[in-house]
Amino acid sequence: MKKLLKNLIRFSLIFNPIVTASCTKWQEAPFDDKLLKAKNDNSRIIGLKDEECSKLNLDQLKIFIEKTDKIRLKENFVLEGVQKEKGDLILKISGKKYSLKSLLKSLDNVWGKLENNYQVREKDNIRIIEKGKGKTDVSMFFENDNLEFKNKEYFEYYKEIFRSKYNDLLNVNKDLPDLQLILQKTFLGNGKFSLRHNQLNSNLLRIENIFDKDAILNQFKEYFEDQVTFYLKAYKIVNKDNLEFDRLVVTIKEKENNNNKQFLKINVDMLDKSGVSLLNNEQKNKIFYLTDFQDTNERYHSFKKYGNFEIDSSLGDKKEKSLFNEMFKDATLNFEKNIFNISDFDSLMHPLKPYLSFNLNSFMQFFNAYKDEIKINLVDKNYEAVLENIEFDKLLNNSHSIGKATVKITNKQNKKSSKTNWFTIDFTNAHKHIFDGFYIQNKLDCDNLNSDEYFSYHINKGVDANNELILPKGIVASEFYEKNLKDIVNFVIYQNRESLSIWNNKKMSQNSVLEIIQNKEKFEKILSTLISQYVLKFFINNEKLGYKNLIKEVKVTIDSDNDYDVLKYGVGKLPIKIDFINHDNEDMIDGISEKNRKFLLGGFIGFNFSDVDAKVKSLSEGDLEKPLKDKTPPFLLDI
């Protein structure tokens, strides 16, 4: 009888994982069953993906759940509160308590990361930001002289701090412990974890008169304090008396005009849970500066480095009709299920990992490969809009950062159609994005803050007599191919080896080579796009200027000789051919023989992973943040 009772208890626990220990009877789950049972990303119940959750800690998750309305509750269920308890978050929903840890089964393997915060350690006079249990002294957030922020762009200020103290790949895409940077980032409202952009009914998407003190106090202050607190909670911040930071409060001082740029001057205080300040008087009195870069056109407020910029004036006489975003102000660009697991244009522009960033060239390749899965969503259902093509445009000083799309609009009632343009800078409504630039040297460890190694709207050699950016010479395709291609392919395959959205809902190692060959058209497109996304970050043009000469695609052909035989090529190895094609659809590597363009891609059923595993063990975490020369696991092999 005791054995039977134990088995019954064990059986009931298996099928009732979401109730906390204090609950003794079964209760209805307040979330959709499909989300709870999902093997991957069942963190969607709180409005995030698993990978996004793993970037945060429990304190930040608590704020995100409390301050947004992204939690996916069933009808008639209400979230009443969130408590942090012993490495878990307890959700109080309609009078009952639920353990978030037991709900998010797909995060079991990384839950330990959520219990850690960022800490800072010194390595060779460079600070490294990493996850751990360590504390960060509050003085670090005040130590930099921010007076010069008034005379610099946000990016320039960031660049100086990064280079002087944090110049390491491990720190890329992490919030540096500098309060001026975090305050301004919050003020601009960008980022995947922006609380106001995750409020479905938010009226804070754009504050028209951001420098109206009453507007700040009445509409913006509470959100602003919550958002800064969210970013600061990435760290466990303490003062010399070991008081621990809990929340930030802002005091608005006054407006200031400096070189025709408006600033809002503020003071801050950082309090513990009891409302006791962590700051000394000098820190409390330090002035911080916020600016929205408003001048002649608030839609494009951030882009004025080489003169005021707005679409209409830049087009001049070329503007013949209303732009798409002027006709449909609430249009959004959404992505159906795809290999990069992005849902919309904003998430594409805020990648979770630095290597997944796009420039205009790589985005155009992605669009051309998967245009049927990229949809325009209109609020007005009487119309249908289709994105037909995207091309380079000289807008913004020919910085290669804004593309011009052609949109076909159809009136569903009378079936009449028309075409107009939509510029990529207007693909999002609340804030504006321009694309990243290009690496311009034939090496993998280019510094994107160095104008000798990187070209973009922000990092460059200035403008010419026509007010266009001075373009770099470029890279010879065959030289890049021979020097860097293997490491890039190795890196991309390693990063995506377990992606279910790529490999037929399985891991790569669970697919046979024959399965891939039988679906070669699908996987040629996948492999071409995965590799192109990174290779097209480089200004590969055979040193010939002009859009047509720029690399357009890394073209992968599977079993190009149509002669696959496991005895000839080996177990778990897929024969592929790799070409570089430019925007004129010309071969860019005619100096490389057909034979030397053919490789074996390992990693499928039966593949011997011993060399891959040995290489991975020899590499550090930082080595796997981006492809580096001779520091990638060997998946791409010579025939």
Overview in brief:
The chain is α+β, with helices and mostly antiparallel strands and 639 residues long.
Summarize model confidence as the mean pLDDT.
Answer: 86
Helix content: 25-40%
Number-wise, the strands total 21
- Report the total helices: 20
Low-confidence stretches: 1-27, 200-212, 293-299
**Radius of gyration using CA atoms only:** 26 Å
Write down the domain tally.
4
Structural class: alpha+beta
Globular, elongated, flat, extended or rod-shaped: what is the shape? globular
State the major sheet.
4 strands, antiparallel
Identify the quaternary structure here. Answer: single chain
How far the N terminus sits from the C terminus, by CA atoms, comes to 65 Å
The portion of residues forming beta strands comes to 15-25%
Task: Record the strand order, biggest sheet.
Answer: 18-19-20-21
Organism: Mycoplasmopsis caviae
Protein name: Lipoprotein
Structure description:
This is Lipoprotein. This protein is α+β, with helices and mostly antiparallel strands. Helix content is 27%, strand content 19%. It has 20 helices and 21 strands. Strands 18-19-20-21 form a four-stranded antiparallel sheet. It has a three-stranded antiparallel sheet with strand order 1-2-3. A three-stranded antiparallel sheet has the order 8-9-10. A hairpin with a 2-residue loop joins strand 2 (89-93) and strand 3. Helix 8 (179-188) crosses helix 9 and helix 14 (360-370) runs antiparallel to helix 18 (520-535). The model is unreliable at 1-27, 200-212 and 293-299 (pLDDT under 50).
